[in-house]
Amino acid sequence: MPPNPDTLTRPAPPSDAAASADAQAETPAAKPTAHASATAVASDSNPIGAPAPKSGDDVKAAGVGSAGGNIGETGKTGGAGGGAGGGGGGDGGGEPPHQPAFGSSAPRPGSPASMGGQPSYLQAGDSPWSVLRRIMSARFRAWYDRAGQRITQRTLKIGISARIFHPEPGSKGLRSKTLQYLEESIAHWVMSRDVLVFMIPTVDTQGLLHPSHIRLHDYAKHLDGLVLQGGADVSPLTYSEVATRHEWQGDRMRDMYELELLHEFVEQGKPILGVCRGCQLINVAFGGTLHQDIATDLPQAIPHVTETYEHNRHTLTFPEGSSLAQMLAPVDVPIVNSIHHQSVKTLGRDLSVEAVCAEDGVVEAIRYRKAPFVMGLQWHPEFHRAGGPEFLDCTPVLDNFLRAARETRF
Fold first, then answer.
1. What is the C-alpha separation between 130 and 128, in angstroms, rounded?
2. Minimal CA–CA distance to 32: which of 54, 65, 56, 6?
3. Is the torsion defined by CA of 118, 121, 126, 127 positive or negative?
4. Which CATH architecture has domain 156-408?
5. Catalytic: which of 258, 264, 276, 364?
6. Is 382 a catalytic residue?
7. Is 341 known to be catalytic?
8. pLDDT digits (tens, 9 = 90+) for 211-262
9. Does the annotation count 304 as an active-site position?
10. What is the tens place of the pLDDT at every residue in 362-374?
């Protein structure tokens, strides 16, 4: 007899807790395939092999699977596990924190721009133009200091004209050659002020043995000043006269060489200091003439050359307004040596007399007025010690010459 459906005992419906546990027990078997697929996709999109960040769904799935596994192992009820899994899914499902893009123009925290101000080292009211003006001013001062240092510290280069020794007829060896040389004292006197000295040789662009394109103009261009040293007489032919005695014919060759040299330095605006013969040559260069022999032309004059050579001496007087007197330290009786038998006769154009012999009025110093420094001294300041008690100290004259050389070097 078939059982009565009404009388059959029906199994009790499963409790909510058991149903939840069964559902969660089945979850690990179904989820791995989906998780593996997601991992494969992430690996393809991350070529360097770094683990791809998990999405919110992945985090939820991982949380649920972990909770189910814990329940199966511990045998605990699924309420706590499910709650933990749900909690894990909830945490993983949020948006990742915002990261600013690389190179963003947004001001950094704590920077003057983010605080709406300017750097604290700037002055109140500074503008870009005022800052630029200060920068340019500082750079100009630095350039000016460097230029000034170069001007003041570069060693001066002073040229000295050469004395010329002409070959002696019938001689052999060195005396059969033309020699050009410096008298030692003049070189050392100029060098005593810590400058470089160069002897300027004669030039010969038409020479048969060693022709050259170097000219005296090139020396005037590269040197800072010129000293015309003493030596042989100036030839009367140079100032359009004839020698009254054979021994007074002078050195015409040296005259031509030094006159060209003098005019080149004058054209360059560079200073010139003439000593003895150099003083006479300056006068001739500007159209003046000379007494061929003082004793012959001026019988009343004192001897200006004797056998005592540089020990022969006389005193000076300075005309009113003499610039030479202003250079020299005031002394009661200015004494200089005297080693010359020629002297200025007719003064050249634009020249002024700066000193005369106190005993006879013979011209002892001249100056060219239209140049920064062109001066001639008839005596030899290099033949005695500077600052000595006997002779006039002419170091101030040399210093003024060198200052003019520095000021006119560019």
1. 6
2. 65
3. negative
4. 3-Layer(aba) Sandwich (3.40)
5. 276
6. yes
7. no
8. 888 999 999 999 999 999 999 999 999 999 999 999 999 999 999 999 999 9
9. no
10. 999 999 999 999 9
Adjacency order of strands within the sheet including 313-317:
196-200, 157-161, 225-228, 272-275, 374-377, 363-368, 351-357, 313-317, 335-337
71, 189, 241 from 265: Cα distances, Å: 113, 21, 26
What average pLDDT does this structure show over 139-166? 86
Q: Considering 291, 304, 314, 380, which one is annotated as catalytic?
A: 380
Domain boundaries of the chain, sorted by first residue: 156-408
Encode pLDDT of 295-322 as tens digits. 999 999 999 999 999 999 999 999 999 9
Residue among 279, 364, 382, 384 flagged as catalytic: 382
pLDDT at 83: 41
Q: How many CA atoms does the CB half-sphere of 254 hold within 13 Å?
A: 26
- For β-strands 313-317 and 343-344, DSSP reports them as unpaired
Rounded to the nearest integer, the mean pLDDT of the chain is: 80
State yes or no: pLDDT of 68 exceeds 70. Answer: no
